[in-house]
Amino acid sequence: MNLFDHPDFDGHESVNFLADERTGLRAIIAIHNTALGGALGGCRMRPYENETEAVKDVLRLSAGMTRKAAVTGLPFGGGKTVIWADPNSEKSPELLRAFGDRLKGFESRYYTGEDMGMEREDFLIVGERTNNLVGVRKVSRFDSSGEVTAIGVLAALEAALTARGDKLDGMTVAVQGLGHVGFALCGLLREKGADVIVADVNEDRLNDAKSQFDATVVESDAIYDADADIFAPCAMGGIVNEDTAPRLKGRYIVGAANNQLSKNSIADDLAARGVTYVPDYVANAGGLIRVGHEGLAMRDERDYDDDVMLESVHGLGDIVTQILRDAESRGVTPLQAAEDFALSRVAEAEAARAEA
Ligand code: NAI
Predict the structure, then answer these.
(1) What would the pLDDT profile of 88-100 be if each residue is shown by its tens digit?
(2) Residues contacting ligand 1 via CB (< 6 Å)
(3) Is residue 27 helix, strand or coil?
(4) Which of 2, 17, 195, 286 is the most exposed place for a label (fewest CB within 10 A)?
């Protein structure tokens, strides 16, 4: 593999391959950019088909984290870890400790925490070996960042609706994925008077959604054809593509999943169809804000405050308003407006770093 010429390399500062033969650890830590501050980005464990898939995933996710941190205004850069293993059969305390040992060497350049396939309990074990963790200590009343991310998705969605003269009350939202974020989001949507149509591969979660939210359940693939005003992807990436985009009936896509578009040009197709797509890294920045505030409190040796953090999460609505206004006035897609907004902050910080 030629990493420097990889289509997703995108100027990464470093890509580290970490291994431990004794425990079977195979992990990749990609640090995309640290101009705004030390990189933040979760650690995902997945049984990738091959190394190529793992590399692609980590590169795309860490570049997304740089943009996500930049739009929030927090002084952090972007990075990500993938551990190439099956969380159901290959996760062991020894492997987690070995990962902690490797992570320690990154010092203030990179901090990580929960992502798919990794639970808080796993990080308590990783934390036996390193302090390079955020979102693991019990400082917040939110047990998982998923709930906070859902609050941010709702703020982003309401801002998008307001910008287009709509309101959530009476609308129907198709929620794909009822995990930490999707399930919490359904609850918030119901409180706002919206109906939910849901899909998941987990029967128990579907049953819970039916009983708690009076949700309409559809087969996994049928969520793209649902009679809904809004599509909220909260499971995996790449789900808005040439096949699914024409099937969506709603005029909004706002959700938590990372890398929702199979490629950036899908944003143009969506705009041409009159669909408002709120870029994923803006809509789902609540989780980063949650751990970012904890990281700042740690760095500055002061108490962490949930209320201050939540104010910042609600502020995602203002960022969406600004991005949609900018997109409208310049005749570009919201994705382009978000890219310009985020990357101009990074470029400014890079220029300042080069001069220092
Ligand atoms: P999770 O792992 O708790 O939930 C994912 C859900 O999707 C599970 O219920 C799973 O059964 C379901 N699912 C899997 N395949 C599916 C399919 N084909 N169709 C429908 N449902 C399917 O993950 P979580 O934490 O809720 O995150 C959801 C997404 O949001 C992920 O892409 C994650 O990277 C992203 N995200 C999460 C954040 C957080 O704070 N948890 C922050 C930012 C992004």
Answers:
(1) 999 999 999 999 9
(2) 115-116, 145-146, 149, 176-182, 199-202, 205, 220, 234-236, 256-258, 284, 287
(3) strand
(4) 2
